[in-house]
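Researcher: Please translate sequence to structure tokens.
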Amino acid sequence: MNFEKGFLYHVYNRGNNGEKLFYSNSNYQFFIQKIEYHISPFADVFAWCLMPNHFHLFIQEKIKI
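Model: Translation complete:
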């Protein structure tokens, strides 16, 4: 998928058959750390919502100066 500069994107995913993605608080923290490491260098995260069986991210590609 190609992201275009200046556009906002709603990224989301669900567990298979509605199964849980997150079972404990440490699972949520681990996922947030992965967002910081893999996404934050390339995109600004304006909002995120983590629920037991799915997540939502509202992101925009960072503009390089």
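Researcher: Any highlights?
Model: The radius of gyration is 13 Å.
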